Fold this sequence. Notes:
- With 262 residues, the chain is mainly alpha-helical.
- It has helices at residues 15-39, 43-66, 72-97, 104-127, 146-153, 155-163, 171-186, 201-220, 222-255; strands spanning 140-142, 190-192.
- It is globular.
- The mean pLDDT is 86.
Amino acid sequence: MFRRKRQPRIPGLSVKRLIPNIMTLLALCAGLTSIRFAVHGLWREAVIATVLAAILDGLDGRVARLLHGTSKFGAELDSLSDFVSFGVAPAMVLYFWTMREAGGFGWALVLLFSVCCALRLARFNTMIGEPDLPSYAGNFFTGVPAPAAAGLALLPLICTIQFGEGFFDRPGFVALVLLGVSFLMVSKIPTYSFKKVRVPHKWVLPILLVVGVFAAFLVTEPWLTLTVLGTLYLASLPSAVSSYRRLKAQADRATTPPPAAG
């Protein structure tokens, strides 16, 4: 009598490796929920949902690395979530808010924003693990990342909530913002990534205090805090370009052989 050969049991996936993917899915749900709020004219809630999606997106990758739960599946899921949460959702929020008053031109601009976000994410995915990148390039993104671009695109709405209607809610102004942010996403302008920044021990406590103060202001004065945060990010772009060029020049000098003696 022949015994049936037992099939090898496939090991299950530990819960800790599922946590980053769960956070990514929550970010995706938050981005989609912002569209629902926009359909009903709940602009504050739509911005809050987008901010929540950005926070979850900023945490999922770091949690995955801490828990050793990184995977190709998670990377692909993260890109899809980013496109929906930061490429489609902000565009739809702005369209329902004010850009539909511009007719077909307004729709074309929100489409342009979404397309540029898709191109930016596709370029980012192709650059992951590229061996030819210099060491200093790990501290910079190429172009404005999708979550930051979503925040900049929603900045006119945030300013309108903070300062009132009359200027920031004009379709012409929002159109200029959409054009500028779309260009920044697909550009090759270096921007700070802060992923590989190591904080000296003496700066740990001051930074934690700053984070605490920022959290307090975010709760008590959310719209003013988000306005200041977006403005500071825009102000950091020239500094990032200057820092990147300086590091590149130093690396070029280090690799250039000295001239031969005559």
